Amino acid sequence: MLTLLLTAPLALAAGPNDIGVLQDADIKVVQKQLYVKEGRTELGGALGVMPFDGFTLGTQLAVSGTKHASERLAYGVHVGGGYGFKTAHYELLESPTYGVAVEAYRYLASVDATAEYSPIYAKMNVGGTILHHDVYVLGGAGLTVEQSVLPSHDMAFAPTVPLGVGARVWLKGDTALRLELRDHLMIEKRVQSGTTAFKQNVVLSAGIGRFGKAKK
């Protein structure tokens, strides 16, 4: 009897119902990905603004094409055109009060070839509506065309490195709302002063992406 009492706890501890301590790493949640990107081509259009330049306020209309090699990796081309308007600050500097002619350049056009990496696909509840979305980062190479705001209107063709972050929010079927911040890092040769300058055009944009059918 004593032997039975001493061995009973050991038997219970080794029983089939003992699962031990559940670790966080053991818990996995699998969500169905309703909107699939792999193997599909996305065509898009967007309107953007460049609000962070002290001398010009740029606007942009852009079109893009993106080929999704997988759910995470994609390659694309982004073509934009627009115009940079003088800011109130610039107009004050060139007024008779100050009479300063600043060699600023306005945005006219750009073309980028980029790679896109999307590590996040998720869902969120907005007012009872479930919205599927992804988040991506991008980088690549391109060319930006700008024009001096001085009367000479000198042109500049600047090699560009585009870097950015964005998100897609699926609306219905094959259509997604795209929100993006794209920073154009440029090396720009300026004719009037004969100098080479580093410049950034930060574009905030919103647009629509339309997905084609996946190839069988």
Describe what is shown at a glance.
The protein is mainly beta and 216 residues long. Helices cover 8% and strands 60% of the residues.
Helices, strands, pairings?
Layout: H1 2-13, E1 41-50, E2 56-68, E3 73-86, H2 88-93, E4 105-126, E5 129-148, E6 155-172, E7 175-190, E8 195-211
Antiparallel strand pairs: 1-2, 1-8, 2-3, 3-4, 4-5, 5-6, 6-7, 7-8
Give an account of the 3D structure.
- With 216 residues, the chain is mainly beta.
- The protein has one domain: Beta Barrel (Porin).
- Helix content is 8%, strand content 60%.
- It is built from two helices and eight strands; from the N terminus they run H-E-E-E-H-E-E-E-E-E.
- The longest helix has 12 residues.
Structural class: mainly beta
Q: Quickly name the level 1 CATH class.
A: Mainly Beta
* CATH fold-level name: Porin
- In total, the number of domains comes to 1
Describe the largest sheet. 8 strands, antiparallel, barrel
Keywords:
eight-stranded antiparallel barrel; mainly beta; elongated; 2 helices; Porin; disordered N terminus; 216 residues
